[in-house]
Amino acid sequence: MTATDEANPNATARVDSWIWAVRLTKTRSQAATACRAGHVRVNGDRAKPAQAVKPGDEVRVFHAGRERVVEVKRVLTKRVGAPVAAEAYTDKTPPPPPREHVALAGVRDRGAGRPTKRERRELDQLRGARRP
């Protein structure tokens, strides 16, 4: 199989190899680790690193704090340049929410120490977490 096997519509590749080849992860080992951790789904099902992907499959990758939803257009087994890699999939990732809708993380002043029990309860209440 060549790096870009367009001639064969039945071509398949390992999902970890494909994620690495189209540059969704930096290394193949990161892609395999993401698969083993359950951060990769192929057509809605959790994927093991050796699961085969083919054109038309939907791949969801949760990596670096965001979820990418892509559809496989072309099977790649070797890492290629970014322009070629971008042509190998269709990005269906929804746009990120506007900044004003993103919950702000609590920021404590430097040297303020640990939160008191009262402050911790207030933080939990803001986050929506309940304690028994």
Written overview of the protein:
With 132 residues, this protein is α+β, with helices and mostly antiparallel strands. It contains four helices and seven strands. The strands form two sheets. A five-stranded antiparallel beta sheet has the order 3-2-5-6-7. Helix 1 crosses helix 2. The longest helix is centred in the last third of the chain and has 11 residues. It is elongated. The model has no long low-confidence stretch (mean pLDDT 86).
Name the descriptors.
two-stranded antiparallel sheet; 24% helix; five-stranded antiparallel sheet; 132 residues; alpha+beta
Question: Strand tally, please?
Answer: 7
The order of strands across the largest sheet is 3-2-5-6-7
**Rg from alpha-carbon coordinates:** 20 Å
Q: Could you list the spans in which at least 5 consecutive residues all have pLDDT below 50?
A: none
Q: In percent terms, what proportion of residues is strand?
A: 15-25%
Helix-strand pattern, N to C? EHHEEEEEHEH
Shape annotation: elongated
Please bin the fraction of helical residues. 10-25%
How many H/I helical runs?
4
Label the structural class.
alpha+beta
Beginning-to-end CA distance, first to last residue: 58 Å
How would you characterize the largest beta sheet?
A: 5 strands, antiparallel
The chain-level mean pLDDT equals 86
Biased composition (Basic and acidic residues): 98-112, 119-132
Protein name: RNA-binding S4 domain-containing protein
Domain RNA-binding S4: 13-77
Region (Disordered): 86-132
